[in-house]
Amino acid sequence: MNKREYMFSILDFVLVLFLIATVDAMVPGGGGFDENYNVTWGNVLKLNQGKEVQLFMDKTEGSAFESKHKFGSGFFQMRIKLPLKDSAGVVTAFYLTSKGDTHDELDFEFLGNREGKQILIQTNVFTNGQGNREQKFVLWFDPSTDFHTYGILWNPYQIVFYVDKTPIRIFKNNRRYGVGYPSKPMTLVCSLWNGEGWATDGGKAKINWSYAPFKANFQTFSDSGCHADGQKINAKVCGSTTYWWNTVQYSRLSANETTAFKNVRAKYVTYDYCSDRPRYPVPPTECRLNQ
């Protein structure tokens, strides 16, 4: 091998390593549960060769699983079927979170209810440890009878919460106005736990343990996200338009999404911290900017 051929061989090798690293950052794996997630606590049953997982909760404990990787941006989806019948006080959660007192977090929390009453979805956004941005919704279907898809889009422009492809909440990146925006590597977590102290009727409705064990089912374990397994997000990498969720069309809602979003906001919102005047006499800055 002459010197010229040797140099090209070295360059080819470096290029291959670069491509492998890029692909690894883009896609967190296309397999089932075991490839992308770990059980973190409690009783977790794997079904259909790892294509479905069932979480359990009894008087002793609940259960949870989390992604093996942390992420710096992405579009994260989970198909979920909630506990049946009387689930008052039972909380099923699907969320992204970092660690520590100054953590970032993006929450879907499903608040169980008495049989025949509607289950509520509570969403929340934490930035640098500050939350208190709750918005609650009723749904236009019963989420305990079948699977439905819940999604979180997180990119440099906006965070969007989706229910079956319908946007229900937007939190825009308004750092230039002094509003916090998630900037820490976050893990995806799903859990089932006892929230009877607050979840239903302000904690008045307690868990009916005669219905235990409570079960929540999850599907879809291969989500699109930029791996960020270090202490910080590489904004240049995870904000790159190489990833489809960072392209310009995902910087805002489409016309059809905007129409659907306005319909949800008009019909299904039961609580919005932005409208809670006793709590916030002056609404937080982001409330006006997110409209």
From TrEMBL:
Biological-process GO terms, alphabetical: cell wall biogenesis; cell wall organization; xyloglucan metabolic process
Post-translational modification: Contains at least one intrachain disulfide bond essential for its enzymatic activity.
Gene Ontology cellular-component annotations: apoplast
This protein's UniProt keywords: Apoplast, Cell wall, Cell wall biogenesis/degradation, Disulfide bond, Glycosidase, Hydrolase, Secreted, Signal, Transferase
Residue ranges annotated for the GH16 domain, each copy included: 16-218
Main location: secreted
Subcellular location: Secreted, Cell wall; Secreted, Extracellular space, Apoplast
CDD domains associated with the record: GH16_XET
InterPro entries found in the cross-reference section: Beta-glucanase-like (IPR000757), Beta-glucanase/XTH (IPR044791), Beta_glucanase (IPR008264), ConA-like_dom_sf (IPR013320), XET_C (IPR010713), XTH (IPR016455)
EC nos: 2.4.1.207
Active site: 105, 109
Signal peptide: 1-25
Pfam families: Glyco_hydro_16 (PF00722), XET_C (PF06955)
GO MF, one annotated term: xyloglucan:xyloglucosyl transferase activity
Taxonomy, superkingdom: Eukaryota
SUPFAM superfamilies xrefs: Concanavalin A-like lectins/glucanases
Known function: Catalyzes xyloglucan endohydrolysis (XEH) and/or endotransglycosylation (XET). Cleaves and religates xyloglucan polymers, an essential constituent of the primary cell wall, and thereby participates in cell wall construction of growing tissues.
UniProt family annotation: Belongs to the glycosyl hydrolase 16 family.
Protein name: Xyloglucan endotransglucosylase/hydrolase
Organism: Raphanus sativus (Radish)
Gene expressing this chain: LOC108861016
